[in-house]
């Protein structure tokens, strides 16, 4: 996720913070200062930081449980609207998906229970005064954890309850249809959140509504795409007619190739047709904007770490490589000569052709 930076590594996953998270902290601190001076600002800022520590614990609940099923979590990112654990993949066995989905809310329930056992005041009235300093600090923290657990169990994507719903539906129908139903529930919930946020003048609720709506749609598209890719090979989706560059070609040559074609990626091949890397439009434009000599070699802006797969590789393997951030995946012969390449765009076009 762009505009995020790593603040540490814990249990094998990078912990990242999105820059907008600090805007939230600043907004809360300034608002609290205007209402009650420095004591209020420190109190409220500390509470939000403690709350997000619980959000991190929630996401690690998912991550560590997924690890039991051999699924890695490369990173966890803190956003103003919560946390996001990026799993390598979601478990597709319904039972495993239910366990992974429930692990996050279970962490919040455990925090609430632990605070209750040590005598913290956890009356439900605390939630109505959550933005004030009247209830004690730990009492507010306990009740917010309980609220997070309940909120995440709403049976709609992308909340954890939506994944439980999808897994339960998958027991009686195919995964694609189950995902569409859970995603539709998520979008309905998003519309309700948006209406409530606009009616009550709550911009945070509107932001959550937008996130939920987009995430639910993205999940449905991803599952449908994977259902198609499991039946296809790299050869079924690869681009076979394309312009290439050579090691000696310059930035000026690459710029002309951009003007004369509709390609977004240009393979750089050696004399034997083996792939050296890709020059992408984005990298080329960034280089030209910095005003280097156009006689410089195009290799200076080339992306070298390009995944390569054999012709008979499954298209799902290609899709996994694209999700890791590669601009394209090269399809090569056994001796390394390039036959074609696959991008996200032409996988999407294949989806349309397949009627998905």
From TrEMBL:
The active site is at 59. It is found in: Cell membrane. One of its GO terms (molecular function) is metallopeptidase activity. GO terms for cellular component: plasma membrane. It is a multi-pass membrane protein. Keywords: CBS domain, Cell membrane, Hydrolase, Membrane, Metal-binding, Metalloprotease, Protease, Repeat, Transmembrane, Transmembrane helix, Zinc. Residues 238-297 form the CBS domain. Binds 1 zinc ion per subunit. The chain crosses the membrane at residues 15-33, 98-117, 137-157, 204-225. Its cofactor is Zn(2+). InterPro entries: CBS_dom, CBS_dom_sf, Peptidase_M50, UCP006404_Pept_M50_CBS. It comes from the Bacteria. PROSITE patterns: CBS. Belongs to the peptidase M50B family. This is Zinc metalloprotease. It comes from Ruegeria pomeroyi.
């Amino acid at each position: 996720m762009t505009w995020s930076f790593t603040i540490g590594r814990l249990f094998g996953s990078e912990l990242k913070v999105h820059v907008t998270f600090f805007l939230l902290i600043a907004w809360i601190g300034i608002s609290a200062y205007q209402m009650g001076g420095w004591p209020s600002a420190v109190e409220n800022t500390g509470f939000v930081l403690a709350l997000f520590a619980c959000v991190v614990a929630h996401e690690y609940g998912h991550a560590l449980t997924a690890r039991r099923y051999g699924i890695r979590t490369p990173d966890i990112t803190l956003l103003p609207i919560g946390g996001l654990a990026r799993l390598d993949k979601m478990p597709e066995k319904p039972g495993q998906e239910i366990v992974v989905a429930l692990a996050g809310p279970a962490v919040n329930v455990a925090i609430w229970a632990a605070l209750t056992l040590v005598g913290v005041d956890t009356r439900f009235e605390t939630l109505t005064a959550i933005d004030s300093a009247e209830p004690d600090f730990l009492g507010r923290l306990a009740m917010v954890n309980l609220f997070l657990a309940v909120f995440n169990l709403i049976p709609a994507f992308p909340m954890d309850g939506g994944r439980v719903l999808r897994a339960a539906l998958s027991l009686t129908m195919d995964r694609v249809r189950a995902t569409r139903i859970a995603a539709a529930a998520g979008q309905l919930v998003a519309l309700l959140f948006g209406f409530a946020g606009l009616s009550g003048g709550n911009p945070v609720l509107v932001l959550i509504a937008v996130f939920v709506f987009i995430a639910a749609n993205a999940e449905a598209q991803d599952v449908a795409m994977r259902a198609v890719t499991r039946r296809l090979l790299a050869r079924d989706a690869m681009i076979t007619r394309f312009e290439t560059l050579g090691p000696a070609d310059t930035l000026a040559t690459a710029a002309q190739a951009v003007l004369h074609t509709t390609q977004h990626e240009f393979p750089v091949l050696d004399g034997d047709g083996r792939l050296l890397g890709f020059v992408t439009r984005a990298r080329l434009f960034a280089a030209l904007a910095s005003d280097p000599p156009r006689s410089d070699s195009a290799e200076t802006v080339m992306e070298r770490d390009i995944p390569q797969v054999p012709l008979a590789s499954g298209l799902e393997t290609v899709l996994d490589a694209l999700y890791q951030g590669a601009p394209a995946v090269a399809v090569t012969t056994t001796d390394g000569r390039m036959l074609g390449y696959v991008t996200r765009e032409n996988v999407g076009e294949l989806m349309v052709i397949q009627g998905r």
